[in-house]
Amino acid sequence: MPPLKAGSYLIDELFTIGAYRSGAMGGFIALSWQEVDAFARLTNRISEGWEAELLVKMSREYVKGLQIGSEPMGIPPYNGGKLAAVVSGSLKSALGV
After folding, report:
1. Which of 85, 33, 94, 93 is nearest to 59 (CA)?
2. Cα 60 to Cα 19: distance, rounded to the nearest angstrom
3. Partner of 43 at 20 to 30 A CA spacing, among 2, 14, 32, 74?
């Protein structure tokens, strides 16, 4: 992953939860608010609303990237040290990249 100025622990938390779920037909589904809330309450590893909000956004962006990356000419969410263009500017700025 690229170096981050802040919030890198949230990436670890995202992959601890599981960045996405598998859909019934083999697709990808982003984490729900309920899943992030349960993780926060059960582990006490995140406590702020902005952390939960960012985890949900990161999951949604990751799923977008997986969907694009699964196309024959698509680029997955993380490729060779660079975040794919599909990762939104607001998420990049929140992560400090």
Report:
1. 33
2. 9
3. 2
Range of the domain at 66: 8-95
- Report d(CA 3, CA 72) in Å as an integer: 28
pTM: 0.71
Is the pLDDT score of 97 beyond 80?
Answer: no
- Record the tokens describing residue 47, joined without a space: 């406590």
- Distance (Å, whole) CA 64 – CA 82: 16
Length of the chain: 97
Does any domain span residue 35?
A: yes
So what's the pLDDT on residue 70?
77
Is residue 13 included in any domain, yes or no? yes
Please report whether residue 1 resides in a domain: no
